[in-house]
Amino acid sequence: MVFLITLMSGIFLFILGITQVGYLANLISHPVISGFTSAAAFLIGFSQLKHLFGISMPRDSTIIPLVKHFVNNVEDTNGWCLLMGLIGTTIIILFKVSKKTKWIPVPLFLVVVSILLTKYLKLDEIAHIKIVGTIPKGFLPPINPLNNISESKLLKLIPVSIQISLVIVMESVSIGKTFAAKSGYTLQATMEFIALSLSNIVGSFFGSYACAGSFTRTAVNHNSGAKSPLSNLISGILVMFTILVLTPLFYFLPYTILAAFVLSAVYKLFDYQEIIFLWRVKKRDLIVWLSAFLGTLFLGIELGILISIAMSFFIVVVASSFPTISIIGKTDPEDNKFVKLDLVELAKSAHPNIMIILIEESISYANIHVFKEKCLRYLVKYKRSQRYKTMDSSNLILLIDATHINEVDSTGMHGLKELYGLCDELGVSMYMMNYNKDVRKSFEKSGLLKLHPSMLVERFEEVAELCGEILLGNIEERNINWKAYLL
User: Fold this and answer.
1) What's the predicted TM-score (pTM) here?
2) What pLDDT digit, counting tens, does each position of 241-255 carry?
3) DSSP letter at 154?
4) What is the DSSP-derived secondary structure letter of residue 243?
5) Does position 34 have pLDDT exceeding 90, yes or no?
6) Number of C-alpha atoms within 13 angstroms, CB side, residue 92?
7) How many Cα neighbours within 13 Å face the side chain of 376?
8) CA–CA gap between residue 398 and residue 432 (Å, rounded)
């Protein structure tokens, strides 16, 4: 049944791949990747302390149990084991730092030397250094994962397979994007899905559990200087050759040396520079980083990634809910340049009867209420001002500059209809300029353009001409209750 789940997960991943949903990987932002990577480095590092210190620690995917087990068992530290591991870690890091010695295969050298020392000095017996021991030789015979499976069991396994597939996607894409950013290439998520699917489909016929990208092995591979997928092919061939022929040679390999390889690879993955960068540039993205880091550290990889992605979406929605909304206008009638104005400056501008509102965001359900409220506040405060009352004309036009509006959703269209009606009650004409084709289509499909065919204008000059033609009446004649519009 386990192998059937592997097969079904592979099939589901293959469907994701051929349906080209790899673009969903773009929803994972860089702060999510960086926070996840930094937390994973901590978790991997802590999980290797049991081998480095030669103590017993159960496996866990969160930091608190790991720390508890380490503190409870640190008194049983094997000094010789710790010494060998620290020497190995130091040698690897020193040779990595030195540019002149990068060509030396230090890991291979350490493996050979540690095996020889352990075997001939009997360190496993005298110093009680834990070794790999017997590694099973050869491959399992092919199996049929579909044997003795009923239709009812198959249906029960579908939700489990989908869940496992999604976990594989989240982890593998996050790991892939991490090292893609570090190495300066673009991750093709769709190809990753297909590669993972084939690995699971083929592996299910050879007794394989569901597999995903390994953070630890990828870090070691990257730290070894690998530059292309060819390294995976070479590694695979060497692993196959080792399993078939060389497994007896690794009997005396100390676990502490393996821990040295991992620790020397993951310590660079803690991205402290990203914390400084986000603090300086965008503090709200630092919240996403912290949610990914703390979520992964305390709740595990899957929940950490999900929480941080949800936090990213939440911050984007909140940010779009409070867009920058400004009044702009011309201070010089001969100049085509529009500048930001306050209400006092608008009254002194070249066109005091035209209030141009610029919103630096598409209009959607998240911000239409804020936009509508701000427009009404500006209009009411402006019409109540003494300077406006002393103007020769009481004509007032609200002109929405749609330069930054890429689209208007259905809630936004309803809100604009309401704003148009409220403006009419206030004795204000409402227009929109600098709109794109998509915005115009939304107006046409919603019926708003049929009700108010002249609402969309091509140029500011059209509105300036209309300003002198529209007679809206003065405040006293319409007897408007201004307080009702101060939301």
Assistant:
1) 0.72
2) 888 888 889 999 999
3) H
4) I
5) no
6) 27
7) 24
8) 8
